[in-house]
Structure formats: C-alpha cells, structure tokens
Design brief:
Chain A: Belongs to the DsrE/TusD family. Chain A: This is Sulfurtransferase complex subunit TusD. Chain A: It is found in: Cytoplasm. The complex is a heterodimer. Chain A is an alpha/beta fold. Chain A has a single domain, classed as DsrEFH-like (Hypothetical Protein Ychn, Chain: A), CATH 3.40.1260. In chain A, about 35% of the residues lie in helices and about 20% in strands. Chain A has five helices and five strands. Chain A is globular, with a radius of gyration of 14 Å. By secondary structure, chain B is α/β, with parallel strands linked by helices. Chain B has one domain: DsrEFH-like (Hypothetical Protein Ychn, Chain: A, 3-Layer(aba) Sandwich). In chain B, the strands form two sheets. Chain B has a five-stranded parallel beta sheet. Chain B has a two-stranded antiparallel sheet with strand order 4-5. Chain B starts with a strand and ends with a strand. The chains are: A alpha/beta, B alpha/beta.
Chain lengths: ~130, ~130
C-alpha cells in the first residue's frame, strides 16, 4: 500500500514524530511505499539539523534524515509553517535575508499543495498529531 | 488529477493554539486542487465558527471572516456536531451565518452549515477518502 504521512507536532515535545518514524520503518519493512511525509505546524522542527539532544536520547531529526537516505523518502516541510518557526534551507535563507540556514539533509521545503497531492496519490493518508 | 473526498476535522478552539488558523490554510489550498472537500467541527472546534469573535484583547489576528469566504471556493459542506454544541451551551444561533451561492439554482444562497449528530458524523467520516484532523 502507498502511504502519505502527516506529522503535526515537534520532536521531543510530543510523541507523534516518534510514532510516525516507527510506523514508516515498519511499513517499509513490510514492503509498503511511503509516498511522502509532510511536516506541518510545529512538526517542521523535525527538519532542523541544529538539534543536539543528550547522548543517551534518540536523535529524531537524524533518524528521519537517515531513513530518507536509505529509502529515498520525500520529506517535505511546509514553507508557510517553516517561515513562522525559523526553519530555512539555503535558498529561503538567502531570499529572506537571513544569516544562516538550518535544514537537515533529506528534507525539502515546499508548499501545502504537496500535502493535498500526497493525499490524492496515496492509498492512505495518516495524520500523526495531538 | 483525481478527485477525492477530503475531510478536514477541526477539533480545537480558534485561538490559544495555531491549529485552527493553519488548518484554514490547508483548506484553502485544497480548493485549488478541485477536490470534494468537507469540514467537520467537533469538540472545541465549534468555537471556530462562533459569531462575534473579537481578538483585540489578545493581540492576534481575527481570521473568522475567512470562513465566510469558503462558499466562494465551493467549500460548502460544513458539518457541525450537535453534541459538541450542546456540551458547550451553544446553538446554531451562536454560529456565523455561512452560506454559498448555488450557480445551478439561479445563484440561490444556501446554508453551508449542516448540523449532524455524533452517529451521523461518524457515518460521514467513514465515507471520506482522506481525513486530516487538526
């Protein structure tokens, strides 16, 4: 089956990103396809590369990044939500006149249309949120 | 592109968290994709379409007028759960007058809000292909 996942909460604050990560791994293991993972609301914070949790804690952003690399996943951060919360890729940082970017490898920034298109293309859309 | 039945489920009050405002942004984008869109208002989500919202005291944008524009985007199936209203001491009269113009019926103005009970709401949700909850 082809899935689109939506993640609406930030890492560590809320379990939704952990659950989605575990779901994605399990689905891929069973041979299902993850068409897209869309990060919205505070969920955009799953895409920062500037997270440094204690060593004995899980590394949520890096785990997403690595999973994306292994399975060629499409991880999309909503641009409107990202702009509000200070998530920038290099192009967006330049456009906004910011002095830094902070997006982790494997994520891309795009519009809300990607969520709707993901919903149309996938057999199932699952929302992980509060 | 294919047309699917999308439902956006609004469960949270309009202010206090950003869910309602950002939900509305998704709803408006979905209209551009010409999908079969409906909205559900349950729990504190019913406050999103309450009449007479005034945000001057909290320094936030009052975006309630945006709900009135939904009819112009052919988003005219707004299902409001009866029990959620009752639990909060609200009636239909406490909600905004949200309408749409039916171009197949001489542009007659028709109500967008449909009051349904909890069991009916479950049935409507079961018919959807994509359910996104906020």
């Amino acid at each position: 089956m082809k899935y689109t996942l939506m993640i609406n909460e930030g890492p560590y604050q809320h379990q939704s990103s952990d659950t989605a990560l575990q779901f994605a791994r399990a689905a891929l293991e069973k041979g299902h396809e993850i068409y897209r993972v869309f990060f919205y609301h505070d969920g955009v914070n799953n895409g920062t590369r500037l997270s440094a949790p204690p060593q004995d804690d899980r590394q949520i952003q890096k785990e997403w990044s690595e999973l994306a690399k292994q399975h060629d996943l499409d991880l999309v951060i909503c641009i409107a939500a990202a702009q509000r919360r200070g998530l920038m890729d290099a192009d967006e940082a330049k456009r906004q006149g910011m002095d830094a970017d902070n997006i982790i490898e494997g994520f891309r920034i795009s519009g809300l249309g990607q969520l709707i298109e993901g919903g149309i293309q996938a057999d199932r859309t699952l929302v992980f949120g509060d | 592109m294919a047309t699917k039945k999308f439902m956006f489920v609004n469960r949270k009050a309009p202010y206090g968290t950003v869910y309602a405002l950002e939900s509305l942004e998704v709803v408006l984008i979905s209209a551009a994709f010409e999908q079969d869109v409906s909205l559900a208002f349950i729990d504190d989500g019913v406050y999103q379409i309450a009449k007479g919202q005034d945000t001057t005291g909290i320094g936030q944008k009052n975006f309630s007028a945006t709900y009135k524009a939904l009819g112009d985007y052919e988003i005219n199936k707004l299902y409001v759960e009866k029990e959620s209203l009752e639990e909060r001491g609200l009636t239909l009269d406490d909600l905004m007058d949200l309408t749409w113009e039916d171009e197949d019926d001489d542009y007659e103005e028709k109500p967008s809000i449909h009051l349904v009970d909890r069991a009916d709401m479950a049935g409507i949700m079961a018919q959807q292909e994509v359910v996104i909850s906020f």
